[in-house]
Amino acid sequence: EDQVTQSPEALRLQEGESSSLNCSYTVSGLRGLFWYRQDPGKGPEFLFTLYSAGEEKEKERLKATLTKKESFLHITAPKPEDSATYLCAVQAGGGGADGLTFGKGTHLIIQP
Amino acid sequence: GAGVSQSPSNKVTEKGKDVELRCDPISGHTALYWYRQSLGQGLEFLIYFQGNSAPDKSGLPSDRFSAERTGGSVSTLTIQRTQQEDSAVYLCASSFSGEGTQYFGPGTRLLVL
């Protein structure tokens, strides 16, 4: 069974204080690993897709990395508008279901 | 261009009633997905359509749940004889094919009294 575990569950940072969110996964053949941002009352907003170990992607203050067992979302010098829940998901290969398996998310609060 | 749209945005119903939730995917996307997000839980995959067919219905919680897609576009998720445990946010997503990034709609918040 595919599993995704995110840590920490919640994180409170001061504005400008860099940190990393962790996503550990077990999957039968990784087709892709996805990071989404979700604001209260809204649907998940796509951030990054990673396909193979060693891959890295960046967007503004965010950088996502991938190994064979986990992914990190690094947040550099965050601002209050970066406050949100960050979701990690995997899509398994092998011709099975194409639905994503999600972790429970990390609730990030950036204090001014 | 327009993103994934869902309607209604909110639905309050009484236990035992049937409800229909609608999803309009991004134009040109052949794959469509339904998920459920319950309070304190992660997103749970329900069903996936490629075109009008659903190769995988294994995520549907019970036989009270059904979904269809017509014309390779709009999809409807129907919950019959709703129960209080069906209260959740129902999210729809679409992708260009079965591969790659899924883009989500804003969700329908269902409350069963």
Tags for this model:
heterodimer; A: 112 residues; mainly beta; 6-stranded mixed beta sheet; 5-stranded antiparallel beta sheet; B: 113 residues; 7-stranded mixed beta sheet; 4-stranded antiparallel beta sheet; 50% strand
Describe the protein in words.
The complex is a heterodimer of chains A (about 110) and B (about 110). Chain A has about 110 residues and is mainly beta. Chain A is about 0% helix and about 60% strand. Chain A contains no helices and eleven strands. In chain A, the strands form two sheets. In chain A, strands 2, 4, 5, 9, 10 and 11 form a six-stranded mixed sheet that branches. In chain A, strands 1-3-8-7-6 form a five-stranded antiparallel sheet, with no helix packed on it. By secondary structure, chain B is an all-beta fold. Helix content of chain B is about 0%, strand content about 50%. In chain B, the strands form two sheets. In chain B, strands 2, 4, 5, 6, 9, 10 and 11 form a seven-stranded mixed sheet that branches. Chain B has a four-stranded antiparallel sheet with strand order 1-3-8-7, with no helix packed on it. In chain B, strand 9 (about 90-95) and strand 10 form a beta hairpin. Chain B starts with a strand and ends with a strand. The mean pLDDT of chain B is about 95. The chains are: A mainly beta (about 110), B mainly beta (about 110). The interface of A and B includes residues 36, 46 and 87 of A.
